[in-house]
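Duplicate of #3305? Posting structure anyway:
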């Protein structure tokens, strides 16, 4: 009887386990396993496509340099094949800035500044940089990083207040106050993760046949030389301030380069030295020195330098860069050039043509849509068309909530412009559209409550100009009161 009772208990437990497995959705057959893997693959592909759209929406978009892109695609493929299998997804894209930043998104997008590409002397050194970033992906360091979806332009309340007080043109608010690139490129790996990525890259570059000195050591030496070239902190700055910033001006949590070099040296000491494989003609030098690359690179950099000059209000530099862009061979190779030339073009018809061509290009950014919408609304008085243009831009880049504050500001201004038209001159359909815009504003502001990263900016965007002036004045009053209280406390001490 006891044996029978025990057998029944075991059978019951087995049935319960099987039932739980089924309830939990654990795959029972190879077909179910394959379906689960296919579902995960599709989710990964969607995340990768979304990440690329988000990155492309920033500033003037990613750099469109086909000769360099084709080369980078081949090099990263070789790195993947030399690493652990199955290979992890990775895509290298070029950020059109003369900085020295490289960053990796959770979905496997490696962003490299064009400054790195201009600086790198050899393929071995470039392979070291990409292998290091690929190491962060393979070693799952990215699980602790924020999603790239949060790394997009958000006009904060503080930024908007500053813009209003300085009289800055709101057309460029996204480029001026965007936190996208700085959020993505901020170095937030732990020291141990950096050491692990270095060791991973050392192993990969060795497998690819690159010498240690020509690859990893050259890569780290270059970082060290760049860090030393950064201007020291002012004499009244806190101790160590110069070392706490990287080339982009954000906080740097990387371990000292000397320590990274020393650790790799120790790894090398414990290995049997292998003769590097003969590399022959350096592929990267061929690409970097090719006339096609130099022409494409020049156009991309000129357009982005003009954007920086426009944002900073450097009129003389802006005019000089405009002349250089206009002197480039036609047709232009990038939408960035078309967008920047449109931004200073006085004739509405020609400006419209530039922006429509920019939007039709595969490398356009959200800024092209924004400038076209402003033109349609302010110069052509095409209110409904203008708002539709802005919404089309949001749909294209699949990043709606990060741009809600900007869209709210645009809708609010459009409605105000319509209501400013005398009633006896305003068509009924236009009045109804203005009412629709106000309803859209209320709906967007309600949605913003669920998005903490943009809720404050949405609240600011919902204010009209008078309310903004009052908010700025109130903020100044609060700051003055706090300063006075602090001064009184210090006097008492």
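Output from current build:
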């Amino acid at each position: 009887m006891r044996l029978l009772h025990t057998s029944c208990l075991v059978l019951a437990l087995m049935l319960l386990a099987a039932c739980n497995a089924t309830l939990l959705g654990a795959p029972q057959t190879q077909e179910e396993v394959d379906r689960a893997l296919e579902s995960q693959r599709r989710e990964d592909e969607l995340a990768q496509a979304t990440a690329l759209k988000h990155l492309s929406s920033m500033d003037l978009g990613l750099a469109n340099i086909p000769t360099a892109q084709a080369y980078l695609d081949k090099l990263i493929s070789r790195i993947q094949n030399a690493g652990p299998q199955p290979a992890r997804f990775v895509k290298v894209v070029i950020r059109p800035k003369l900085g020295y930043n490289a960053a990796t998104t959770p979905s496997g997008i490696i962003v490299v500044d064009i400054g790195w590409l201009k600086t790198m002397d050899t393929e071995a050194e470039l392979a070291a940089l990409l292998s290091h970033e690929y190491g962060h992906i393979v070693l799952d360091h990215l699980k602790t990083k924020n999603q790239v979806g949060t790394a997009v332009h958000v006009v904060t309340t503080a930024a908007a207040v500053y813009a209003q007080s300085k009289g800055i043109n709101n057309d460029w608010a996204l480029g001026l106050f965007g936190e996208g690139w700085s959020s993505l490129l901020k170095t937030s790996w732990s020291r141990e993760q950096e050491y692990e990525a270095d060791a991973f890259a050392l192993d990969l570059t060795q497998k690819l046949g690159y010498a240690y000195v020509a690859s990893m050591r050259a890569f780290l030496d270059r970082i060290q030389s760049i860090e030393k070239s950064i201007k020291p902190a002012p004499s009244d700055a806190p101790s160590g301030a110069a070392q706490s910033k990287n080339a982009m001006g954000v906080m740097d949590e990387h371990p000292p380069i000397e320590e990274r070099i020393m650790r790799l040296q120790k790894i090398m000491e414990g290995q049997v030295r292998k003769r590097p494989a003969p590399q022959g003609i350096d592929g990267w030098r061929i690409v970097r020195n090719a006339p096609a690359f130099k022409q494409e690179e020049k156009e991309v950099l000129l357009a982005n330098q003009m954007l920086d000059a426009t944002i900073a209000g450097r009129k003389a530099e802006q005019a000089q860069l405009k002349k250089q862009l206009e002197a480039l061979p036609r047709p232009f190779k990038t939408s960035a050039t078309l967008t920047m030339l449109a931004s200073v073009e006085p004739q509405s018809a020609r400006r419209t043509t530039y922006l429509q061509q920019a939007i039709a290009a595969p490398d356009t950014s959200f800024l092209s849509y924004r400038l076209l919408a402003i033109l349609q609304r302010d110069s052509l008085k095409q209110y409904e068309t203008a708002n539709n243009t802005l919404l089309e831009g949001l749909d294209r880049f699949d990043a709606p909530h990060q741009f809600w504050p900007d869209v709210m500001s645009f809708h609010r201004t459009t409605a105000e412009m319509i209501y400013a038209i005398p009633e006896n001159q305003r068509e009924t359909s236009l009045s109804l559209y203005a009412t629709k815009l106000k309803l859209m504003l209320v709906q967007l502001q309600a949605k913003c409550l669920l998005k903490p990263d943009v809720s404050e900016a949405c609240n600011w965007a919902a204010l009209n100009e008078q309310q903004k002036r009052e908010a700025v004045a109130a903020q100044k009053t609060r700051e003055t009161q706090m300063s006075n209280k602090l001064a009184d406390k210090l006097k008492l001490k």
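Confirmed duplicate; merging threads. Strands lie at 91-95, 102-104, 109-113. The longest strand covers residues 91-95.
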